[in-house]
Amino acid sequence: MLDIYTLGEEVLREKTEKITVFDNALAIFVDAMFETMAEADGIGLAAPQVGVLKRLFVVDTHRPGERMVFINPEIIETSQEQGLYEEGCLSIPGMYYDIVRPLEITIQAQDLSGKAFVKHIGGTLARVVQHENDHLNGILFIDRMDEEAREKLVASYNRRNKKRKK
Ligand code: NI
Q1: What is the 116 CA–ligand 1 centroid distance (Å)?
Q2: Does 136 or 165 have the greater pLDDT score?
């Protein structure tokens, strides 16, 4: 199990580096990420959330074929059509908000062996992938809220956490 970093910790805001070595250590790390995500009941987890500044995330929407790792991903196309969908984040536990994003995307990435692939996706998977891809650029879903709503959410998150620590 890996530790998940939460809102306020600098590592969530830092730059990430491309992965260049596709070895056994990487496979072991990806396994640990899948395990940590499942344990936390998440459907996506990006490397910076576990303190690793590399361009990698895992997703599992619990639909067939949607348990995947994306390494060095690049969103190369987004649909004009956008939609609202409630997002949460393992790094901001307990908080949810409707976020606007493109409904469909085309993404290119590498798999665990380093092999490049291109995928056109929609639905929940497109949503999760965009959210996780943001993490690789130090962006959290709250950054996509308007300022007033964000301040409210963060204040209520901080209040909860204070209570928890007492
Ligand atoms: Ni997240």
Answers
A1: 24
A2: 136
HSE of 49, CA atoms in CB hemisphere, 13 A: 28
10-165 fold: Peptide Deformylase (3.90.45)
87 is catalytic: no
Provide the whole-model pTM. Answer: 0.96
Query: So what's the pLDDT on residue 166?
Result: 53
**Distance of CA 95 from the midpoint of ligand 1 (Å):** 11
CA–centroid distance, residue 88 to ligand 1 (Å): 7
Q: Which of 66, 81, 132, 148 is catalytic?
A: 132
For the residues 60-84, what does the mean pLDDT come to? 97
**What is the CA(91)–ligand 1 centre distance, in A?**
6
Q: What is the pLDDT of residues 12-29, one digit of tens each?
A: 999 999 999 999 999 999
Q: How confident is the model at residue 165 (pLDDT cuts 50, 70, 90)?
A: low
**In the chain, domain spans:** 10-165
